[in-house]
Structures are given as structure tokens and as C-alpha cells.
Amino acid sequence: MNKPSQVTQSLYTPLKELGCSEQEIEVYTTSLVLGPSPIQSISARLSIARPNIYKIIRSLEEKGLAQFSEKKKYARNFLVSSPAIILEQLRGKEREIAVGTRDLSLVMPDIMTLFRQGDMPSKVKVLDGGDQFLRIFWSILEEGKSPLRFLGSAGEFINFISWNEEHKWIKERVRRNLFINCLLLHDEDAEILRGRDDKEMRETRFLEGASPFITGILLFGNKATLWQPKAPSVTLIEDEFIVQMFREIFDRLWEGK
Question: Does some domain include residue 58?
């Protein structure tokens, strides 16, 4: 069984998440151990002046974490609310955050169109490993705006992430109403994709005459991702001017097909 000090220490982060100050946490956890107690006992235990204890208690009451007993005013004991209230409040906060995250995710493409880099420096990150590869792949759907643009080898890319992952990504892309233009090397996987273009909000064209290569570039928002599935790694470039250059190159190749 954990010691009382270990148990009360585990309440520190949750109480902090609920907006409690250091002294409020100290009063809460001390009162939890003492049980219903007069103000002077808590004041003496923590070496905090009684007027300050009253202020702290009022703040805890406002947060729904404390109350006084129902006895007469001058005989009342102070007691904290059940720790189960902390868990209930945290779950409520998590639900609010989840809703906020979902709503922000849906409007993020529109918000990103308002962002202008100006004189801010470019951001370039090289992320290694399959987990990072997939994390960036999925984040594209949260920041991208139609049309997304992909140039490269569909076969090499899908061979790395798997058709299962590709199908899930396509389904979510369609749900978000994101169209994509794909300029692909001619291979079997590219043919499969082109055959489903109408159903999957995509237009696929082939990069005829190009020497085979395994990498790819995907443009979304003010970012470009350079995919290297053999490492595997992804280079993420966040620079509106560089991305504008890539977009112009892509569009010229696209219109020439």
C-alpha cells in the first residue's frame, strides 16, 4: 500500500491542471490527511497565517474542491471535497479539450492560409524512423488545403506505409473534402490509384519519360515534405517562399502532361 505522502503527491499534477496554486495544493493535501479540521490546526500545520488560509480556502471553494461543515460559524471545521471530484473535473476538462482539438483540426487548413511567414527564418527538420514518417503523413490532413500536390513514386511510398495505411489516409482525406493532384511515375500502384480517382477525390497523371526514383514530395499549406522511404525519413520544410517555388514547378509539370 502506498504511503499517504505518496498518495497526496500523486494529486499534485491533477490539481495543478485544475488551476490550483502551490499553496492551494498544500492546503488541499494537508486537509485530506488531517480530515475535517479547524482553521487554526491547518494554519499551525502549514505555518501560514489564518487570514491567508481563509483566502486559500475561498479559492478552493470556488473551484469546487472544499467546503465548511454545517456547524455554527465559529465551530465549523474545514474539509476538502472528495478526491473523486478531482477526477470528475479532469475528465470534464479532457472532454472540452477533445472538442476544442477536433474543432481546431477542422478549421486548421483555413487558418493556415492566413499565416504569412514574412521575414521569419525557414524551418527545416529531418525526421527519422517509420513512426515519424507516419506522424507527418497524417498531420498533412490537419493543415492541408485543396488541392494537395504529390510528385513521386507511388509504388515505393505505398510499399513502405502499406496499402492498409494508404486506404485509411485516403478515407480520412475524402471525409475532410481534400482533393489531391498526383504526378506519379508509371507503375502498378499508380495505375490502381488512377482507376479510383473519381471515388477518392484525386486526379492522377503520369510523369512519362522520367528515370525511376524512389522519393516523393508532397506540398500542403506552406509546407513541403520530402519522403525517403528507404531510410526511412522525411524532410519537413516550412517556408512559404520555397513551397511557392515547388508549387510552381509542380504546376508547370502538371500542365505539360
Answer: yes
pLDDT 10s digits, 115-173: 554 555 568 888 888 888 888 888 888 877 789 999 999 999 999 999 999 999 999 99
Q: Are residues 81 and 128 in the same domain?
A: no
Position 128 scores a pLDDT of: 86
For residue 28, the enclosing domain spans 4-86
Q: Quick check: 212 pLDDT over 90?
A: no
CA distance 129 to 152: 20
